[in-house]
């Protein structure tokens, strides 16, 4: 698949590179979940410019250094002493080289030094502080374990706290890019195909690339491609999250499984887990791991008890809903059966994802100051799919989302809007709309 989007990120990386080469060294941190395209973005930004790319595998420090030395020598066409066996000495050597020559240094999976030699971070801090102002290195570090990257650069107790000149958190492709990709690779796509790509991948570039490169871009083709023997998707969610959670992942997985299945309030989740207290894990899933989000009805106060939890990442939500929940089917290789389950569930599942799609569409229009849903703690009758407050004062859009417009009942929405207006938006002019597949 060709390189898409990332215009603003590339411009920012180019700006920092220019400063590094013409002023003094800069440190940029690129974070984001696995498969989000961090390495592709970084390597695109340094094309045609002297660059050292170092991948930190989980190996002994001496082994890593012996692998890095020929890479550095070849990339910069320079001599590097082969006897160096600790990263501190190698980094200092690179900083000294950068005193006379401008170049990019990319360190990928930077958080892995935690497992190799944690003192690397304090060593780098001392060397960086010593050489930064008298060298011209554009140092870019990236990592896909979000919690560790946050800890390294945002925790005040860590040696590299405050050293990053810029932190770029890479997000999934936006909706316009997904449409562009579909147009390029499947010009006859339907809006249902587009919704499936969004629902299954969330716009994570690697997953989108797998579908494109294998020419699997209709709803049924995508499901068949994901659910088969030796599919790269089967264990993807587990591999993604065990790296984050470590060996104590079982409770986190149980919480995410419950949320993916529609059990989305803390009391309900605790009940589903055998009345286990999960406040600490919920807090970490939001703040440390960035995997779930806390949702309140629009305009609800911070302390409101009407709280629901959602898995933010579309792929992880899908993976828990089908791959994790039906693990026994996968174990006995009944992929045909699992395909059948997903295909029969798809109209219902994608209906929920369509609501998420339109919320994102509203957000990407930059015409609103708040976008959410509305419901009451003890009454689901008046629940409204989307409430969006416009930039203009006291103007709002209320939307009901249906896969098919024929299922929309205007009088029901009108009653809900009247209730909402009296309860929450008394001074607002409210525009109502039904959004369906044809509005994508």
What does this structure look like?
The structure is a single chain. Strands 2-3-4-1-5 form a five-stranded parallel beta sheet. 34% of the residues are buried. The chain has 440 residues and is α/β, with parallel strands linked by helices. The protein folds into three domains: 7-169, P-loop containing nucleotide triphosphate hydrolases (Rossmann fold, 3-Layer(aba) Sandwich), CATH 3.40.50; 236-332, Arc Repressor Mutant, subunit A (Orthogonal Bundle), CATH 1.10.10; 365-439, Trna Endonuclease, Chain: A, domain 1 (3-Layer(aba) Sandwich). The protein has 19 helices and eleven strands.
Our measurement of the CA-to-CA distance between the termini, rounded to an integer number of angstroms, reads: 24 Å
The CATH class of the largest domain is: Alpha Beta
Protein structure class: alpha/beta
> What does the largest sheet look like?
5 strands, parallel
Low-confidence stretches: none
Domains counted in the coordinates: how many? Answer: 3
Strand neighbour order, sheet with most strands: 2-3-4-1-5
CATH topology of the largest domain: Rossmann fold
What portion of the residues fall into strands of 2 or more residues? 15-25%
CATH-derived architecture of the largest domain: 3-Layer(aba) Sandwich
- Tell me the number of strands: 11
Number of distinct helices = 19
Instruction: Tell me the series of helices and strands, N- to C-terminal.
Output: HEHEHHEHHEHEHHHHHHHHEEHHHEEEHE
**Helix coverage percent:** 40-55%
Assembly state of the chains shown: single chain
């Amino acid at each position: 698949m060709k390189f898409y989007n990332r215009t603003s990120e590339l411009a920012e990386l180019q700006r920092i590179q220019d400063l590094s080469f013409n002023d003094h060294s800069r440190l940029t941190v690129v974070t984001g979940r696995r498969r989000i395209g961090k390495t592709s973005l970084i390597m695109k930004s340094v094309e045609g410019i002297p660059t050292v790319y170092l991948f930190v595998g989980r190996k002994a420090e001496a082994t890593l250094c012996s692998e890095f030395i020929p890479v550095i020598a070849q990339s910069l066409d320079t001599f590097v002493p082969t006897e160096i066996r600790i990263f501190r000495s190698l980094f200092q050597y690179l900083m000294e080289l950068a005193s006379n020559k401008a170049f990019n240094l990319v360190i990928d999976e930077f958080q892995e030094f935690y497992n190799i030699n944690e003192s690397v971070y304090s060593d780098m801090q001392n060397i960086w502080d010593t050489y930064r102002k008298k060298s011209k290195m554009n140092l870019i570090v990236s990592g896909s374990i979000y919690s560790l990257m946050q800890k390294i650069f945002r925790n005040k107790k860590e040696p590299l706290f405050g050293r990053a000149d810029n932190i770029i958190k890479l997000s999934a492709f936006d909706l316009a890019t997904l449409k562009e990709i579909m147009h390029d690779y499947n010009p006859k796509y339907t809006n249902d195909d587009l919704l499936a790509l969004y629902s299954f991948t969330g716009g994570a570039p690697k997953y989108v690339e797998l579908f494109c490169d294998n020419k699997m871009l209709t709803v049924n083709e995508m499901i068949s491609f994901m659910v088969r023997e030796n599919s790269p998707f089967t264990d993807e969610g587990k591999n993604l999250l065990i790296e984050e959670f470590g060996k104590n992942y079982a409770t986190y997985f149980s919480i995410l499984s419950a949320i993916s299945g529609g059990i989305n309030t803390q009391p309900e989740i605790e009940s589903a887990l055998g009345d286990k207290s999960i406040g600490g894990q919920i807090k970490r899933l939001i703040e440390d791991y960035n995997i779930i989000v806390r949702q309140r009805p629009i305009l609800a106060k911070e302390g409101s008890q009407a709280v629901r939890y959602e898995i933010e990442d579309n792929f992880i939500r899908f993976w828990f809903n089908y791959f994790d929940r039906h693990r026994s089917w996968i174990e006995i290789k009944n992929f045909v059966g699992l395909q059948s389950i997903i295909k029969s569930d798809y109209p219902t599942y994608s209906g929920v994802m369509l609501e998420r799609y339109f919320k994102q569409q509203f957000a990407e229009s930059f015409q609103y100051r708040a976008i959410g849903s509305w419901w009451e703690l003890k009454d689901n009758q008046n629940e409204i799919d989307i409430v969006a407050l416009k930039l203009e004062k006291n103007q709002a859009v209320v939307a009901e989302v249906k896969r098919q417009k024929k299922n929309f009942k205007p009088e029901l929405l009108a009653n809900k809007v009247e209730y909402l207006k009296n309860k929450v938006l008394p001074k607002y002019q409210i525009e109502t709309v039904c959004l369906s597949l044809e509005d994508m």
